[in-house]
């Protein structure tokens, strides 16, 4: 990861320490840093144990109802939440593992990753980003996304 990307990640982490967080802005910054076009932030509703959409970008409007509430274990975000680890696809369009929901292919993205927002093992939600081309995220990128997810979790407790 370049020095410029590291600096931009540090900016996101600083933004997450502010008292009033603009989650849409955070998501747009994450999408930009990782050179993606699409992304979502879901927060875990601690009572219902369902992931609820908090911010999204690049999602076709007709898909918003399908991803506004996600059960743990369903789709990339739900599986990342269930496993408490990153779930990645080099090409969502050709994936036949069953991890991605059929509607996800309608986003037209290919390289995608969903990471859990964890703090000391507790799940607070998920962060997902995707590119319009086939792509394997690097270990550094996965670790940085997990670090951002941890900072997001801390921000929710503040």
Supply the key terms.
6 strands; six-stranded antiparallel β-sheet; Beta-Lactamase; 158 residues; alpha+beta; globular; 35% helix
Question: What can you see in these coordinates?
Answer:
- The protein is built from five helices and six strands, in the order H-H-E-E-H-E-H-E-E-E-H.
- The protein is of the alpha+beta class and 158 residues long.
- The chain has a single domain, classed as 2-Layer Sandwich (Beta-Lactamase).
- It has a six-stranded antiparallel beta sheet with strand order 3-2-1-6-5-4, with helices on both faces.
- A hairpin with a 4-residue loop joins strand 1 and strand 2.
- Helix 1 (3-15) runs antiparallel to helix 2.
- The protein is globular.
- The mean pLDDT is 88.
What fold name goes in the CATH topology slot? Answer: Beta-Lactamase
Q: Which secondary-structure class do the elements indicate?
A: alpha+beta
CATH top level class name: Alpha Beta
Query: What letter string, H or E per element, gives the SSE order?
Result: HHEEHEHEEEH
Name of the CATH homologous superfamily: GAF domain
| Distance N to C terminus | 29 Å
Task: Please tally the β strands and state the result.
Answer: 6
Structural domain tally:
1
Strand order of the largest sheet: 3-2-1-6-5-4
Largest β sheet strand count, sense and barrel closure: 6 strands, antiparallel
General form: globular
The CATH architecture is 2-Layer Sandwich
* Overall mean confidence score, pLDDT: 88
